[in-house]
Design a protein that fits this description.
Low-confidence stretches: none
Strand order of the largest sheet: 4-3-5-7-6
Helix content: 55-70%
Number of helices: 21
Strand content: 5-15%
Largest sheet: 5 strands, mixed
Number of strands: 7
Distance between the termini: 69 Å
Mean pLDDT: 89
Length: 546
């Protein structure tokens, strides 16, 4: 087995398998609604009008389209959607391309880092084998989380290359600035993360007493900061997005929300959501699970860090930086510490200063007080680093300690078996005629994609007639897949059903209605000539000409 896993041929086969399976997962699981639909809609409007905006109509006049510049979310993902649309001519395919590119960045970025640490091929193959099948951490993430965290792996690689020498590599520093800038245009959460790499160089300069590292940090901070500032001057954001600063000044903080801190370290390698969504609603069981998982998770993290910081002794760790040739393990440990401090610090600050949303986005036992520290995806930078640390430490433990090496073997077998079994389950659900069509934790966008295609087919047949879409369940504020179809959404479903609407020009109206209709919905259909475009399990797609 060892000779098989250590061969170059096996590496190429596993690399291909991992790429195919991970890309297939993204293709089968496109994330097209919620915040992402708003950003993709902005791309649609840019293609049509040259402006990143969102559009809607009101029941007062269904034929008058209203528009506002996109300020609630960064337009970075919209740029990518526009770019990929040149090749696909389809915004759904454009979003899938974006997700697939993120996966490729993750796979090759991880391999690049592992090779930087001279990890034997057998352990790179073990990495590929695990992440060909593992749902963690991918199923906790949205597309921008995955993309920006994958970029971060490349930032870490470039920063480690730069910190291995006091010389200046203009190309590497330039790429660090550019990748940092791109990440900040994709997610608001990535704007504070601009300081991670500069902080790393500042601390490194302090510990190593080398001013060149400090200068590198200044160049990266100023370079990326200026680009980001210019970007958000051109594409400004809603001031409410930084309202937490006012809350911080007022001192009205939500300390109790920190108790819902996520056990993210172990979720880098072990998918827990399938367990959490099936826990019985029993206070003792839930409390035991939460506390037990947190303890295990951070003990796992401490064990992992002990392989890079001997005995977790910070004084011995600091001494290593006074050497001329700094140990690579010390460098990546410092990078992890800087990342951990920035991410955990900012997310905790957001939690303390933000009123909780009335939705847990989690299992039924989670109180309806969603907070930032509970959301696994906000820790993804740290989680990706944990994956890299695990395989570096796994490889190095073989040479150091038989007991530790056996522990790594046991952990790997646990992670792989769980990942593979769950992969079999979700693929059965997705592909089997008796499955649920999406997998128990997958987002099933089949209905939305069908609606998207139906709308675009109507637009193709009636290019000069405006199309308006409304739904009984999806409000415009939540983001509709139809926002970036050929239709303009409206939130006035009830007004339309009650005939409290007008249109000054001909309009094609498309309505998503429940199968079990209310009396008002049935009356509306009886009064208007309509066609049922499609029937789904719980709803129908209906069109009429006004």
């Amino acid at each position: 087995m060892r000779s098989f896993l250590s061969s170059q041929k096996t590496y190429l086969i596993l690399l291909l398998i991992t790429i195919v399976l991970r890309l297939l997962s993204e293709i089968n699981n496109p994330i097209l609604t919620s915040d992402y639909s708003i950003q993709i809609e902005a791309a649609k409007n840019f293609i049509k009008t040259g402006s990143f905006s969102h559009t809607w109509v009101n029941a007062t006049d269904l034929s008058t389209v209203k528009s506002n510049p996109l300020t609630t979310w960064p337009v970075g993902i919209s740029f990518f959607a526009v770019f990929f649309n040149f090749f696909t001519n389809n915004l759904i395919y454009s979003q899938i391309c974006f997700q697939c590119l993120a996966i490729l960045l993750f796979i090759f970025g991880s391999i690049k880092l592992l090779k930087f640490f001279k990890v034997d091929l057998i352990y790179i193959n073990l990495f590929l084998l695990l992440y060909a099948f593992n749902s963690a951490p991918f199923y906790y993430l949205g597309p921008t989380d995955l993309f920006t965290a994958s970029l971060f792996l490349w930032l870490v690689y470039l920063a480690l290359k730069q910190s291995s020498s006091s010389d200046y590599n203009v190309w590497q520093i330039s790429f660090i600035i550019i990748l940092t800038f791109i990440a900040a245009t994709l997610r608001f959460a990535c704007i504070p993360n601009v300081v991670i790499i500069p902080m790393y160089f500042f601390v490194l300069a302090l510990l190593n007493r080398n001013k060149n590292f400090f200068i590198k940090g200044i160049i990266i901070l100023v370079g990326s900061g200026v680009l980001i500032m210019l970007f958000y001057i051109i594409f400004p954001i809603d001031g409410g997005r930084v309202s937490f600063i006012d809350t911080l000044k007022s001192g009205k903080l939500h300390y109790s929300h920190l108790k819902w801190f996520d056990a993210f370290p172990i979720k880098s390698l072990f998918f827990t959501r399938v367990i959490e969504f099936r826990l019985p609603y029993n206070a003792l069981i839930i409390f035991s699970y939460r506390v037990g998982l947190l303890l295990f998770s951070f003990l796992f993290l401490a064990f992992l860090l002990s392989r890079f910081i001997k005995k977790l002794n910070i004084f011995l760790f600091i001494k290593e930086f006074k050497q001329k040739n700094i140990n690579q393990n010390a460098l990546v440990a410092l990078m992890f510490i800087c990342t951990f401090v920035v991410i955990v610090g900012f997310i905790s600050l957001q939690t303390l200063t933000s009123s909780p949303e009335n939705n847990s986005f989690g299992p039924a036992w989670m109180p309806k007080i969603w907070t930032f520290v509970y959301c696994t995806r906000y820790f993804i930078y740290i989680m990706f680093l944990i994956i890299i640390l695990f395989f570096i430490a796994y490889y190095q433990s073989k040479k150091e300690n038989k007991l530790v090496f056996k522990l790594f073997n046991s952990l790997y077998v646990l992670f792989f078996c769980w990942a593979f079994l769950y992969w079999l389950f979700i693929n059965y659900q997705f592909y089997s005629p008796t499955g649920n069509g999406a997998g128990s934790e997958w987002i099933n966008e089949k209905t939305n994609i069908t609606i998207f295609n139906k709308i675009n087919a109507i637009q193709k047949n009636k290019p000069n007639t405006p199309i308006v879409f409304t739904s009984y369940k999806n409000k415009m504020v939540e983001g509709l897949i139809t926002s970036y179809s050929g239709a303009t959404p409206t939130d006035d479903y009830e007004a339309i059903i009650n005939n409290n609407f007008k249109n000054t020009l001909p309009v094609t109206l498309i309505i998503e209605m429940p199968i079990n209709k209310t009396s008002a919905e049935q009356t509306f259909l009886d009064e208007h000539k309509h066609v049922v475009l499609n029937s789904f399990k719980n709803e129908q797609l209906i069109t009429l000409n006004l």
